[in-house]
Design goal:
6 helices, alpha+beta, two-stranded antiparallel ribbon
């Protein structure tokens, strides 16, 4: 069993929404823990990686280069709708603040020097948007919405556990991480831009190596073919 760390850096404001409003001050509230630290849930994160992986497989299928990668995908992420019967071997933890920073924040909150609300305000902001009437150019009545966002350039880390299995697992996972560029609400409308990479237990970035091996393996199975991922 190998433990890796997924490093995530937000490039634009991100909305990892909790689905609730904060005392009616905003319509969309950020997901955070009891100490005010925002996070992206492991279940949602795993789903995003599985989606990126599925997109890669779709691209390969269009090129006739799918091979056995669907089986690797199922081994990693499981089969949707199969429940515990085919859960997949990949375990993904919550994406939280880096450990040392998180521990420092928790200590400050427990000592009473800062409150969870102050922690949350220091790491988030509020953005407003409204709908426009294109005929009049005026804002539509009662359309103003406030959303709490994670500030850009904030680092997050998630623990990924992968059993000692064939190298194809890490190759496909690294390819999915390379394609993982947005997360959260509004990610299809420009929000939540990020970059991510996978590190081993020593903190070394291993994403690029495994991703190159992934491409090399496909090329070796389809000699002379151009790979578009």
């Amino acid at each position: 069993m190998a433990v890796y760390t997924l490093h995530i850096y937000t490039i634009s404001d991100a909305i990892f929404g909790s689905g609730s409003g904060m005392n009616s001050q905003v319509d969309i509230e950020i997901q955070r823990d009891e100490y005010g630290c925002p996070f992206l849930g492991g279940k949602a994160l795993k789903g995003l990686l599985a989606e990126e992986c599925a997109n890669i497989l779709y691209s390969l299928s269009l090129q006739g280069k799918l091979g056995t990668w669907p089986l690797i995908h199922e081994q990693l992420f499981g089969i949707p709708g199969a429940g515990l019967v085919a859960l997949g071997v990949l375990r993904v933890g919550n994406a939280t603040l880096p450990r040392l920073l998180s521990e420092a924040v928790i200590n400050e909150v427990r000592m009473g020097r800062v409150s969870p609300e102050e922690v949350l305000r220091s790491l988030t902001g509020v953005r407003h948007q409204t709908s426009m009437n294109f005929l009049t150019g005026a804002a539509k009545d009662k359309s103003l919405r406030g959303k709490q966002v994670l500030v850009r350039s904030l680092p997050l880390q998630a623990e990924l556990i992968v059993p000692d299995q064939p190298p194809e697992l890490l190759q496909l996972l690294s390819a999915a991480i390379r394609a993982f560029r947005r997360a959260g609400l509004g990610r299809n409308r420009g929000s939540g831009e990020l970059r991510a990479y996978l590190a081993d237990g020593g903190g070394t970035n291993i994403s690029d190596t495994h991703n190159l091996n992934f491409i090399a393996r496909i090329r070796s199975e389809h000699v002379g073919a151009e790979i578009c991922i």
